[in-house]
């Protein structure tokens, strides 16, 4: 049975490109999981097995217990959560100020916030390293929290400005007429309506802090303070690589991000919609 010209055109121009893109994106994830579930002796066998002949979770146990991923996981989670808390708090306050108040130099200030995103992070490594060394913060998680927060506040403040602008000002005014102070109006009226925006900002910040490598690699010199990204890099030695444990560690690092996106995706879509409206 031949397909109609319209169905054939849609198949070629829509479904086929989407399918090829999906395969291109998902295949590395599949191969990582495939490698993580293979015994060490089967990983480099030829020809390559696209489906494991013998499934095993020994690589996950080795990565979690022997390599130290349990500690790396806790370190990354602590850094990411602290960064999210500080960035969401600061970005919400800055975004509210930009949205609700008029002051001289407002546009210049917003432009400067955006211009900070053009500065390469690598350019600031040496001065930041010297500052943190003089403060005694090398190998201290506080150094990474400060860096991550500083780099994330400008962009997220602009995002929160868009979210807050989409909340009608009349709702706050009505709450203040009923006896609320401005802070009470923000807490009881604005913040509940900002939930999608707060979640979106928190997710972007969490993913950045969770995946960041450059600053963590430079500032964390003690093995006990390594993050997941540093732990993965140290598994690639000069003469040998433990492919099974490396793949298992990559899967472990992916789980929180995937779980978070799966849980908050509806808030994320609504939040981005609010930012576009703003």
Properties at a glance:
MetI-like fold; 0% strand; mainly alpha; disordered C terminus; 13 helices; 76% helix; 278 residues; single chain
What does this structure look like?
There is one protein chain. This protein has 278 residues and is mostly helical. It has 2 domains: 7-55, no CATH class; 62-273, Orthogonal Bundle (MetI-like fold). Helix content is 76%, strand content 0%. It has helices at 5-36, 40-43, 58-67, 69-100, 106-115, 125-135, 141-165, 169-177, 182-193, 195-211, 214-219, 228-234, 243-277. The longest helix is centred in the C-terminal third of the chain and has 35 residues, at 243-277. The chain is globular and about 75 Å long. It is a multi-pass membrane protein. Keywords: Cell membrane, Membrane, Sugar transport, Transmembrane, Transmembrane helix, Transport.
Examine the secondary-structure arrangement and name the CATH architecture of the largest domain. Answer: Orthogonal Bundle
Could you tell me the CATH topology label of the largest domain. MetI-like fold
Number of strands: 0
Gyration radius, in Å = 24 Å
What percentage of the residues does DSSP assign to strands (E)?
Answer: under 5%
Question: Can you count the helices?
Answer: 13
Counting helices, strands and paired strands, the structural category is: mainly alpha
Taking pLDDT < 50 over at least 5 consecutive residues as the criterion, the unreliable ranges are: 274-278
Listing every helix as H and every strand as E from the N terminus to the C terminus, the arrangement reads: HHHHHHHHHHHHH
